[in-house]
Amino acid sequence: MNTNTHVANDSIRRATKADIQDLLIIEQESFSDPWPKSLLIEEMRRKNPDGVWIYEDNPPNISGFLCMRSLCGELEILNIAVQKELRRKGIGIQLMRFAIQTAKKMNYSGVILEVRESNTAAQALYEHLGFIVTGRRPRYYNRPKEDAILYTLDLSKVHGVCEIQSQ
To answer: What is the percent of the chain where pLDDT is above 70?
Structure first.
């Protein structure tokens, strides 16, 4: 599989170096403690299915992105962000469904992630997709200090949710 040109569906594709400025803008408007450019570039260099994947609903306009990595038979969502003005329009769920579909294709046992305790919108999305709370990391996040809520999706219990479809 060509990792530079792989297209996941009509709207999701691997990020390239040409996308970095748009990713940084989305990252900085989405998080109080955003990832630096060097970390995004490092994640972009990983091989399928790991790496940074972008959502373009109107190419070349990047609406959101997802960073994921294989970890001991599971898929870990490291980062997901959508442009502020495009939130709650189904982009986040499309990216998450892509991750779930990818994990199923790789025969992984589950998908894991953590989220700020205050990010109730993201928590609602994850729970809608079948994720369950499996733990907490006290004072995990900075700016401000905040607990991380750990979520897991057991893929043996997922049926039909990972079809990528329009909202």
So the answer is: 90
